[in-house]
Structures are given as structure tokens and as C-alpha cells.
Amino acid sequence: MQPYANFIAGKWVAPEAGDYYATHNPAHPEEALGEYPSSGKPDAEAAVAAASSAMAAWGSAPGPQRGAILFRFAQLLEDSRSELGKIVTLEQGKALGEALGEVSRAVVEARYMAGEASRPGGQTYPSERAGFSCQTVAEPLGVVATISPWNFPVVTPVRKIAPAIAFGNTVVFKPASLTPWSAVYLMQLLEKAGLPAGVVNLVIGPGSSVGDCLVADRRVRGISFTGSSDIGGRVAEMAARRFASVQLELGGKNPAVVLDYDDLDGAAREIVSAAFLCSGQRCTALSRVIVGEAQADALVERILCQVAKIRVGDGLVEGTTMGPLISKAQFQIVDSYVRKGIEEGCAVLAGGRPLTGNPGRDGYYYAPTVFDRVAPDSPLAREEIFGPVLPVIRVRDAEEALTVANGTRYGLAAAVFTSRPELMHKFATGIEAGMIHINHGTASQAHVPFGGRKDSGQGAFSIGPTARDFFTNVKAVYAKW
Questions:
Q1: pLDDT category, 41, cuts 50, 70, 90?
Q2: Which one of 135, 140, 141, 171 is at 20 to 30 Å from 122 when CA atoms are compared?
């Protein structure tokens, strides 16, 4: 196995304690992929020191110069699409087509932010006093810690790093421990693009040591975190003690509401795609269906037809449309929820079981699972499973559908399928979520703000123009002439 290193102050360096761990292919868990640093507090502190040293020069560099480096990075990323996509499939498990799509999406987001670097924020205001001018300017936030998850190991880091450096910040990047290979590759591309030493630093290691250190360090002025709501709450609490800014993209229990819709075939296609991509391991996955009783049987029949088309297997094998779960731990979580649903008496219409007798040897494969007649207060209906499990909840009318849709602690995304304009309006305004999708699945776009409410997020939305709101500070300037 090839050993990899941290990237600090423009150099690849071993962890101070000399500890390493191995990563494995979730499709073939006995296949080791590489050895990575199990870093600790000294490594995190060294990375923060490097980012702090680089801050003055990078923050004062002209925006177009920062943008030029990002444009080069985006081109390198696009040129590396095939190789990086394969790396994502090997370490994360998703089907190769999905992995390639993730890299392409990262390219688009990087290019958008490269352009933003040439558009400085700020406004000029008319003064209420003669001889005065009033304006605001946007200044870099400072050193930013970016902590990313394992389900999207390319696009999520790019979504954090690109705006951070576009707006003049420096970065300490901690990737998920399960997917560090993609992170190393991204750093190699940033280095090749000409990013100055210390502007982005990579520290690989557990959240309990590296992550906690970054969140607690007073030199780190902002933390952009994507992960579970429970850990996000802890990050927010720690950051609040020292008044650091946070951008939290957290969990979801996203409903697909179907009421009086003329195209049930189309709804089923959209729902199944959004539910089972990435083996259901997406914060924006459609993870519950809320359907009016009058159309429930017809919709369920169509959902089952679409689920039957899913081909589960090694993501590198042609024809695979759904790969394994990421790890043994995630496999066990999904299986425990399925067992709870069966014990509750929910009707299992598809799946409901592992697909291998020995997951630790043959892969963490789980059958796409559909439950019907799930109670709104069931754990299947209220808790984030993060796997290929889709519960169907039947309701009497629109009022009950809205109540059920809002009946969880989450508020990330929702999809509404209806042919009635008044219901489109009712649910677009009434669902407590940051993103509403009408008559299609939960697919976002690279220039539109992305984020959630309630336990699904805090701080400025990412992507698009709202990224500036997190990665810059506003300064008001009054001048007498």
C-alpha cells in the first residue's frame, strides 16, 4: 500500500506521531487502498499556523489573480475526471457514472467561484450629511476550517475550498477519514494550479482530535462543516464559545409529497432516482414518500417497477447503478432500521435484507428497500437512515400531508408532485425546508444557494451568491471629504 501524507505549508509531511491507518474498498472490504496519517493536535496546529502565516499575502492579492488560479484548478479537475472518478468509486463505493458526475459538478462549482473572485462585494450608500461618503466593503473572514463528509468526497470539499480562497481566505481542510484519497488528489491539483504555500492545508485524521482542535483554535475564524446534525450541533456549541462563524450543512429527512398528480410514472422515476443514488447516502435524498390515499396504490406500483431496474454491484462494473454502503458501521445502521420497520409491522414491498452473506468479505451491499403503510411517527418516517430505505406514508388530504412533511426535526429539502397550482403554492410556502423542488427530485444547481433549516443547517447557504455571506466580513466605511 502506498503511504500518503498531510499537506502543510506547501509540503507533504508525515504526521508528528507517525501513526497511520488503512482505507478499504467497500465493494471488496479486504482490499486495502492506501495508508493515511492518523493525525493529532500537533498536526492540526501546524496547519493552522501555516494558514495564518499565508493569510496576509493571500487576503491582499487581487481577486482576479485568485480567480485565475481557481480557473486553472477547475480545468485540471476536468482533465482528471476519469482518474478521479475511479478513485471516488474505489474508496466511496458509488457507481462510476455517479462518481464522474460528481467530479463534473465540482468543475462547474469551481468555475463559478473563480468568476466570483473578480466581483468584490460592497455597496455605496448616499450620505445623510453633505461632504460625507458611506460604503461597505467585503473583507476575508480569515483562516477557515473546512470539514467534509465521506458521501461526496470531491464536490463537497470544492464547494468549501473554492469560495474560501476566491474571497481571500486561507484554509485547513480535514476530509472524512473514510475517503482521504480524493482529498489528497484535490490537493495535488491545487498545488499544480499554482496555489501559494499555506493557502490550503490538508490534515487527515479523526474528528475527535483534528476536528475538535480546529474548531477550538482561536486563530480559526470560521468553520464550514458538512455532516450529521448531532455532530454539527457540537461544532456550533464549541464555536459559539469563542464567537467563530459557522456554516453547517447537516442531515435531512426529505419528503416527496404526491397529491393529485397527472404523471405518476414521472414521479416514480424522480423519486426512485433521488432516493437510491449514492445508495441513499445523501443528505438531500428523498427518504420518505407522503402520498394521498387516492393515488397511493398506483404510485407504489410504479415505484416498485423502478426499484426493480436498479442493478446493485461493484461501482466499477459496467451496468451497476447502485454500489455498496460505505462501511460496516453504516451497513449495520441501515440493517437495524430495516429490522425495526419489520418489527413494527410495516409492509416490506422490496428488499429488506443484505445482499451478501459475509459483508465484511463480499461487500456492504444492501437491497433497495421499500416499506408501505408506515406510520408518521415511526423511526422509518422521522429519523435519518442514510441508506437505501424508502418508507411510504399514506395520508387523507393536503393538510395531513403538510403536517407529516413538517413532522421531523429536519428541514433540508422537499419534493412536491402535483398538477394543481394551488397545491404547488401551498407546499412551496408551507413546508419547513431550505429547498423545495416542484415536480422533480432533489437536484440542485451550481449557482443556486444550498442549505437547510431547523436541524438541517445553520449559517449562510453555500453555493451561488450566498457563499460570500459566510466567507467574508462586512466593514462599513464613512469618509468626510
A1: very high
A2: 171
Asked if residue 49 lies in contact with residue 203, where contact means CB atoms within 8 angstroms, the answer is no
Q: Is 283 labeled as catalytic in the residue annotation?
A: yes
Exposure of 212 in the CB half-sphere (CA atoms within 13 A): 8
In angstroms, the Cα distances linking 45 to 27, 42, 50, 183 are 35, 5, 9, 19
Is the Cβ–Cβ distance between 41 and 34 less than 8 Å?
A: no
Query: Domains of the chain: which residue ranges?
Result: 6-250+456-480, 254-445
Q: Which CATH number fits domain 254-445: 3.90.1150.10, 3.40.1160.10, 3.40.309.10, 3.40.50.720?
A: 3.40.309.10
DSSP, res 465: G
Whether pLDDT at 1 is above 90: no
359 and 340 Cβ atoms separated by less than 8 Å: no
**Of residues 351, 386, 387, the one with CA closest to residue 369:** 351
Write down the catalytic residue from 91, 98, 191, 249. Answer: 249
pLDDT, tens digit (0-9, with 9 covering 90-100), for 19-39:
999 999 999 999 999 999 999
From the list 109, 213, 270, 283, the catalytic residue is 283
User: Does an H or E element contain 358, and which?
Assistant: none
Distance between CA 289 and CA 394 in Å, rounded? Answer: 8
Spatial separation of the C-alpha atoms in residues 461 and 421, rounded to whole Å: 28
pLDDT in tens, 189-203: 999 999 999 999 999
Catalytic (active site) residue 128 = no
**Closest alpha carbon to 350 in 426, 419, 268, 443:** 268
Question: How far, CA to CA in Å, does 137 sit from each of 67, 123, 142, 326, 476?
Answer: 19, 7, 15, 44, 7
Q: E strand or H helix at 9, and its extent?
A: none
Integer angstrom CA distances of residue 159 from 29, 71, 103, 225, 392: 29, 14, 12, 11, 33
We find that the CATH architecture of domain 6-250+456-480 is: 3-Layer(aba) Sandwich (3.40)
